[in-house]
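Working notes for the structural subgroup meeting. M.R. asked for a predicted model of this chain before we commit to crystallization trials. I am recording the input and output together here so anyone reviewing the notebook later can reproduce the run.

Input as submitted:
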Amino acid sequence: MKVWGVVGWKNSGKTGLMERLVTEFTRRGLRVSTLKHAHHSFDVDQEGKDSYRHRVAGATEVLLASRNRWALMHELRDDVEPTLDDLLGRLSPVDLVLVEGYKRDRHRKVEAHRAETGNPLIAHSDETIRAVASDSNASAHGRPTFDLNDTRGIADFIANELGL
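Returned structure, recorded in token form:
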């Protein structure tokens, strides 16, 4: 599987760019999966539902299935957070996995950047960031800079870099 990341500071436009890239790559006929890192505790389950009750009772994994979809929830309890490679290994094979977050990992990435956040470019200190998608004229040491909303151009760049 080919892997490409989208990184950036909070409110930089990462999620919107991810959504547009998924739409663009699937429009091109590619099978795409996504993996998102959350820096906070989150819950995809609802209190009171059977699956929630199973998990709270102590189950390590709860698999919820219907004829439309299935979801596997895995409780880490006191285990170490899995690495990006561990998580990628759990995904079914696809043409492309787009990863939101995991900015410290070594896969190739595009940085989403909005001037209004006032944050510096991560690309200045990270050579794995191959391009910047920004709403300003941000410069990243000679790496390509795209308009944050130039989804087709960014997708073309990623496809070329990955040989898709």
